[in-house]
Amino acid sequence: MARLTGTENNDTLTGTAERDEIYGLAERDSLSGLEGNDLLDGGEGDDNNYKGYYFDYGTGETVYREEFGGLFGEAGNDSLVGGAGEDLLNGGKGNDTLNGGTENDFGTSYYYIGGGGGGVTLEGGLFGGAGNDSLMGEDGNDLLKGEAGDDTLIGGATDDNGYSSGSHWVSGGVTGGLYGGNGNDLLEGNSGSDLLKGAKGNDTLIGGTEGDRSYQTNYDSGWERYIGGLFGGAGDDLLDGGEGGDLLNGGSGKDTLTGGTGSDRFVFSSTADVDRITDFTSGEDLIEIIADGFGGGLTPGVLNADQFVIGTGAIDENDRFIYSGKNLFYDVDGLGGANQIKIAILDGTPTLLASDFTIF
């Protein structure tokens, strides 16, 4: 067993194939545990990855600089603690526990094209790697990615989401959120406006307090986009928005969606699967339809009243959404030759109106 302790300056510390304890202390550190079950503590300061480039259009040359920092568990069952500062934690293989500590643990990138353009990339976050991992962001705006294995991700306080903006900038932003990756994962946003994405596997996503949703604004000079919400991805997922107005998208698979309190938006992008909505309230919540996945001549905006009918089937060629009992169907051609397809079950058989649908 090795016990390595850094200095108050920038340190690079590498463990052994056995169990190690590595402490970075202050400033920007790079800690690597290698094999074995290790404890890595970054201490104060930013422990992350920094990359920068500058492209000179006059000479056609690219100047590139790269500084590596962060906590890397590698193989074994590791415990990584970021401490204060902005951190990059990567558990690698094995069943790991990652704690980002205070401040922001996320990724941000900026790219600018022009005569004297340049760019900087600052990468941070908590990455579980292979194995069944536990990731906790605690305070700050965090990026947590479980990757392979059955993982538990807890965002902690403040917002864990994605934000990007562009004007003269080609692209830029701060990226955060909880990403389950492969496996059956538990993602919990806690307080703040969060972005949760389960990806593959049968996942449970809990938004916690405040709204977890998506917001976008277009400007003549560029665009601004704030992304949050619960995205189940592939598999049969359970999404619970908790308090606040939430955006819930189950993705593929048979998903169960609970908005909780607040005005919630339930997104349907295709007719391939049947999702269950447990708590829809007409006039407060919305069903958002992605037209590209449905066809049938849907136009953006509030659903046309003549495209919605309550009954067992379409009664004319205009009908698209049919609400029968607690079951919601879609019919691409009304009284045409195509069969209606069930897309959702609404528990409690709530009132449903055309105005409860928005088309995108």
TrEMBL record:
Compartment annotation: Secreted
InterPro entries to which the protein is assigned, alphabetical: Hemolysin-typ_Ca-bd_CS, Hemolysn_Ca-bd, RTX_toxin/Mannuronan_C5-epim, Serralysin-like_metalloprot_C
Record-linked PANTHER family: S-LAYER PROTEIN (PTHR38340:SF1)
Biased composition (Polar residues): 1-15
Name the record gives this protein: Calcium-binding protein
Any one Gene Ontology molecular-function term assigned to this protein's record: calcium ion binding
Natural source organism: Gomphosphaeria aponina SAG 52.96 = DSM 107014
Domain of life: Bacteria
GO CC terms of this entry: extracellular region
Keyword Secreted appears in the UniProt entry: yes
Region Disordered: start-end pairs: 1-21
One Pfam family named in its UniProt record: HemolysinCabind
Keyword tags: Secreted
